[in-house]
Design brief:
The protein contains ten helices and 13 strands. By secondary structure, the chain is of the alpha/beta class. The chain has a seven-stranded mixed sheet, with helices on both faces. Strand 5, helix 7 and strand 6 (191-197) form a beta-alpha-beta unit. The two termini are 29 Å apart. Bound molecules: N,N-dimethyl-L-histidine (AVI). The site of N,N-dimethyl-L-histidine (AVI) has 12 residues, from strand 11.
Length: 324
């Protein structure tokens, strides 16, 4: 599973470190070697992700914000007065702010994030700007069932919001599981608004994940720094290279760290052999068409209800409803 991109991440707890250790040892012992993308987002990784969103080649964040600004009034029409707006993996709530300025009075805005400290802090920052709005943060892993606050359950209808194309960092079966879980949480009658990056020319996609300033490469390699620091690793960073490319068969960007030579690396006392050129697969970022996301959503009971894109058709915001 994937965690979300945060602008700030507190120090890891013992349980987080144990899970990190187990996943890294299992992933480095596997064939091919792999590490879940959620481990990118330590403090430095989160800051590097913020910098990625600002590099010229990485269009998704800017494009999604543009679509939201251009179509907020239209998107807001799907949100009935008195609804509860539930944001999955809210992070900085930057995108929700655009929607919140366009929506009718709500029963509540419920930002949900795995990082409790962060979701509370963002809620505190949002309240003065939306004094009429009940902001009810929830700390939860959005991939599993969680309870909404009573005010959100009492609302006549709930609207989910999942921007950022984070759904693209799930494997397709995980994306389906997320949509199924969202349906269980939001209940029949709900609407779900999802931001998703669209399939496009490989050249544009490859550039977005290979920015000239090397910020994405730093973001990728920071995973090794994190392993060295938290798991007594001895990765030599200059012996691993950032590889990112569009896999056309699977409609996904793959990110890898490729070993430049044959070498041995130790992590918490365990030794791992690398062949020259062998990679650690660190991330998949799936790209969808309007139709392919629609088919995935339909498969788990969500009916397509609206699509907004930018002029270049790079990114989409898609709405789905769950019948009563
Ligand atoms: C957070 N997520 C949607 C980003 C993406 O594009 O898949 C993460 C990222 N990885 C490299 N650049 C950005």
């Amino acid at each position: 599973m994937v965690a979300l991109a945060h602008s700030q991440t507190p120090q890891p707890q013992a349980a987080d470190t144990a899970a990190f250790e187990a996943d890294v040892l299992a992933g480095l012992g596997g064939t091919p070697k792999h590490i879940p993308a959620k481990y990118f987002y330590d403090g430095t990784g989160s800051q590097l992700f913020e910098r990625i969103t600002e590099v010229p080649e990485y269009y998704p964040t800017r494009t999604e914000m543009r679509i939201l600004r251009d179509h907020a009034a239209d998107i807001a029409k799907l949100i009935a007065p008195g609804s509860a707006l539930v944001e999955f993996g809210s992070g900085s709530s930057k995108k929700a702010r655009i929607l919140l300025r366009a929506v009718p009075p709500l029963a509540a805005y419920v930002p949900v994030d795995i990082c409790g400290e962060m979701v509370e802090q963002e809620a505190a920052e949002l309240r003065p700007d939306f004094p009429q709005l009940k902001v009810l943060p929830v700390t939860a892993d959005i991939c599993f069932p969680f309870e909404l606050p009573a005010e959100a359950m009492a609302a006549p209808v709930r609207v989910g919001f999942f921007p950022g194309s984070t759904i693209g960092n799930f494997e397709p079966h995980e994306a389906a599981a997320f949509l199924r879980n969202a349906a269980k949480i939001l209940l029949p009658g709900a609407t779900l608004i999802v931001g998703v990056d669209l399939i496009k020319d490989a050249e544009i996609l490859n550039a977005a994940y290979n920015d000239k300033d090397g910020v994405t490469a730093k973001f990728n390699r920071n995973l090794l720094t994190r392993i060295n620091r938290e798991l007594r690793g001895n990765f030599k960073l200059d012996t691993f290279e950032h590889h990112a490319f569009f896999n056309r068969e699977r409609n996904r960007i793959e990110m890898h760290l490729a070993s430049l030579k044959r070498q041995k690396v130790k992590v918490v006392g365990e030794c791992f052999d690398f062949r020259a050129g062998e990679t650690i697969h660190t991330e998949n970022s799936y790209k969808y068409s309007v139709e392919s996301l629609g088919a995935l959503a339909r498969g788990v009971g969500w009916e397509p209800a609206g699509v907004w894109t930018d002029k270049r058709q790079y990114f989409s915001i898609q709405a789905f409803t769950l019948s009563d």
